[in-house]
Structure formats: C-alpha cells, structure tokens
Amino acid sequence: MFGQLLIKECKQTFKSLIYWLIVLVLLFDFATQLGGDTEIRKEPQKGESGYGYRSSDDPTLIMKATLGSLVEQFAYDRFVTYPIGFYKHVTLNGKEEKQIEEILQKTTGLSGRAEAEQAVSDWYEAQNTAPGPDGAIMPAKSMEIAPAPDLTYDRFSAYMDEVDSILGGGSSYAKDAREHSASVPMTYEEAMEEYRELTEQDRLTGGYARLFSDYMGIFLGVLPVFLAVTRALRDKRAGMQDLIYTRKGSSFAIIASRYTAMLVMLVLPLLALSLLPLSDCLRYASSAGISADPFAYVKYIFGWLLPTIMTAAAVGMFLTELTDTALAILIQGAWWFVSVFTGALHGGAYGWNLIPRHNTVMNWSGYHDHFSQLAANRILYVFLSVILVVLTVLIYQQKRKGRYRLSWNLSGRLKK
Hints:
416 residues; 2 domains; 16 helices
C-alpha cells in the first residue's frame, strides 16, 4: 500500500506547477551563485605574486582596519549597515555626525572631515599599484589608519561599540564584524597548507560539496513549505477531503507517502545539479593525481541538506493540516528569514541554525573541529521533522473519524 501511494504521490508532485517553479528557483540559484565559485583551486606555485589573504586576530591590525573603514565612511558620508542582512545606507543627523567626529579624533587624532578626506586621499595615492580588470588603478588592500598612540584595545572596542549604536546596529564596527576585519597576506607555506587540507583531508570534492550545500540550503529552508502547503490544500479546494477520508489506506501510509514523495522529488534535482561540479572536480583530480571522493555530494545532500528540507516540509504539512490554511508559509518564511541572516558564513560556528552556512571551499579545519555540533544540529532537525509528521498523522486520523475540524472563517475567528 505504501509503495503504491508513494509512486502516485511522486507522479502528482511531478505534475505540480509549484514543484517546477521550485526546481527553476534551484536552477537559478545554482547558475548565479555557484557559477564562479566552482572553479577548481590550483596548487600554489612558489614565487607567485600573491597567495590571497587570511584573517588576523592581531589587535593592532584590527584597530587599523576598522579605523580605516571608519575614516573613509566619515570622509565621504557613506555609512553602511546590514541590520538584518540587507544593505542600508545610514544618513546621520548633526548630533550623530558630531559624535562620530569626536570618536575619530580620540581614536586616530584626525579632526574634522577635511583631515579625514586628506587621509583617504594620501592612503589611496600610496596604495594605487594594482591595475583592475578594466585597466583602472585599484588599491591593493582596504584602507588602514594607525590608532592614536595612547589608544588601548579596550578603549577602542568601547568606542566602536558606540559607533555601531549610533549607526543603529549591524555595522562593520560591531564586535563580531570588527574581529574579522583584519587580514594579512598568506605565505606560500600557508597557502600550501590550505591546499593540502582541501585535496587530502577534504579529498577535493568535500570542500566543493559543502559550498554547494551552503548555497542550495539557503532556498531549501523555505521552498519545501510551498510544496507541502499546496499539496495539503489541493484536496480541500477540489472538495475531495471527505472522499479521501473514507479510503482504506491507513492515515500513516497516506501522510508518510506524501511526505516521502516530497523529499524524493526535492532531492532528485539536487543530485542532478551536483553532477556538474562533481565532474569538474573529478576531471581535475584525475589530472592532478588527487584521490577525490566521488560520493561527497551525495553525502552532503543527504547529511547537510535533507534535514533542512525535511523540517520545512514537515512544518508545512503539520500547520496546514492543523489549520486548513496557508499559515505555514508565513511561519516558515519568518523562521527562514531569521536563519539566513543570523548564520555564520564561513563555517565552524554552526550552532542550532536551521540553515548551517559554510560559504567557502576552504576552512576544512573549522568544519572538522565543529563537526560534532553540526551533526547534533542535523540530527535535531530530523527528530523535529519526525515529530511533526507524527502529529500530522494524528490530526489527519482524527479528521477521518470526524472528530476534529479546525479552520479559520472569513472573520478571522478560530472554529472547530
């Protein structure tokens, strides 16, 4: 019975317009976000002009980088924040501008906008040595300003907290942001160590599979709820609920087959899309003598992405069966919004976020060191999904017996 229902539900999903819209969104996400990032990293060669940059936790460098950004934004009155992940241009009033000016004088010794503009001009004149892609001369690194001689790191931190507060929060002067503001050039040895982690520990495909999971996971935190809601409401709109309730199939078989069909049909396009970057990795690995893992993408799709899909779909099924409305889209949409804009991007700080982020091919050590946290995170959402599906079965079973009907009438009142 379950097998027959599963095949039928997969066919129904395949015919669904919503399903194909979801597939198109995933295709667009893959094409636009992963296009340039799937280029295979080549082995660093000794004597190259540069090996990239790495983050630095040196307090002096952090102060220089943060103050450089503050001077530049103050000089041109271009303060930018990301309070909830979106770009926001902040326009200061006279009082706020005066406060920023006083902080700049205390932290850098610069007084007024004219001195700030001159400092920016001097910096760019000294750093303009690297031609850009269009032939224009571009600065080789972000602006830095030396802190005042008597400025301690604690005082600096307090001043930057004040700046962040004046700007309304979400700025690059907040504690978490400024601690990652400083970078230093990588040495050949450091670049080789990073490359070895990618090719030996990650077996090349592991790093790219994580990046794939990072980008695809963003939309998979919300898209499955649309599929679940439309499937649950379809029979109601067609007036088929009473007929379905009288079928011989068990409530568990009906709900489980619907849920499983959604998971299968959402995983299939992911497996298909993963073949493109996987083939690139395997070709490079073959030419470079690297022992790549051909099953890395499958592992990450099922271990990293599937729990997110399961949760979003389960929320959609449960709340739709509970309320006979599309309320799940609103709730899951809010959860998705918070998850996307509060996750740590570069891995190693997965926490309990519905959508764990790791938007870099590198940083195997961060992934490895915090793997237990990530595993606990994924297991938690699998259990949560199972609980929601079981509750959905119970509600559905009661409806079939005529004991439970909960919906919202046009006046917004809840009725049984």
